[in-house]
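Student: Send me a single protein entry containing the residue sequence and its fold in token form, directly below this note:

Tutor:
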Amino acid sequence: MTKHPFTYSFIQPKLKPILSLFSLIWISLIGFISVVCLIVNFSIKILSYNLKEATNANQVSYDEYNRRIVIIKEHTKNLSEQQDEIESILATNQALKRSLQNIYDIVPDTVTLDFVKLDKNSLEIRGQTPSKEAFTLLMEAPLKSIFTKTKTTFYQLPNGWLNFTSISTSED
């Protein structure tokens, strides 16, 4: 530095820093707060992403449970329908059993049955009887009271007895 002959100051000038201590403290504080805000922002983004992933996983699980519930409901409905069918068949079988028992109860001792076929609306009986009159009085009369139409055919056997085929039907 060159000295000027005229100086107005008694002290030697010092270089001033660009930023004062007070400015450095404020800049440091602003920088620190900015870094903390960035860390908080980054943490919130990570937590938001994790929450979104957990929500998606839970939605998939929820959808799977709902799908299983629908399958179980369908299976339960099918089982209920099958149970109803089984109960219907069982009731029909019980009715057929009672009907067969009733048919055997009306068969007199003189009539021998060889074949009995019971359908929903018909009954076919084959067997042997000593005479047409015995069959007509003892079997055909009860059958006519049960069924709307009864037709009986007889065939003579060499021993004097008759083979018969009786078909009884009812209109439903």
Observations:
- The CA atoms of residues 8 and 39 lie 53 Å apart.
- Helices lie at 21-106, 132-146.
- The first strand starts at residue 112 and ends at 118.
